[in-house]
Amino acid sequence: MSCGLYAYAITRDRLADLAGPWLISYQGLALVVAEVDLDRFTGIEADEPAEDGPLAVLVREHDAVVRAVFQHEPVLPLRFGTVLDGADAALRLLRARHEEALAWLDRVEGRREWGVRVRAAAEPEPVDLDSVSGTGYLALRRQRLTAAEDARRSAEAVHQALTRRAADSTCRDHASDLLLEAAYLVDTENEDDFHAEIGRLAGELGQPVEITGPWPPYSFTNVEFADA
């Protein structure tokens, strides 16, 4: 068995027992780590579709540890699959990113990530060209293009309105059936207002606005810790 030190996250050096992973500490910071069998990562495909496959199991384990930390302390989740050579490498990582990590922990403390999606309306039925004139077809096409542009503008307005109620926000690349897929970093004391705004905007849109979360700040820890 080939072993390595798996790194889950960086947090404050004041966390209680995690019942498995442990902390490597340096001047107020702590790296959450556990010994891992590297053979578990061998042959895993990044696009593996199975929800119960080896990759999915590892990702859920990673998320479970990050969430356990997040229940008690601010957390900077590390990239999935971050494996270090040992404790010395962990200390080098903490020393190299010490000030940056402290600043990011201050930024995300007391805040949680929420995901929001707005889906496009179902595709309209294809036009029966034998049943409409050329002029009618062009008018229908303009109508559909206008409706699609209006929907896009409405989704952008949703994003702008929610961004004003968040500490930070980011839009993600999304599938063609989505008009908006975004994440928002929201103060816990402002979450009721944030969700009320989502309800208001959904009413204006006349369609559901999907919400996921709360999550640890996966989308808002932009410092790369794995290269130290």
Automatic annotation (TrEMBL):
InterPro entries, sorted: GvpL/GvpF
Protein name: GvpL/GvpF family gas vesicle protein
Coiled coil ranges: none
Gene Ontology CC entries for this record: gas vesicle
Biological process terms in GO annotation: gas vesicle organization
Subcellular location: Gas vesicle
UniProt cross-references to Pfam families, sorted A to Z: GvpL_GvpF
UniProt entry keywords in alphabetical sequence: Gas vesicle
Family note: Belongs to the gas vesicle GvpF/GvpL family.
Principal cellular location given in the protein's record: other
UniProt KW DNA-binding keyword: no
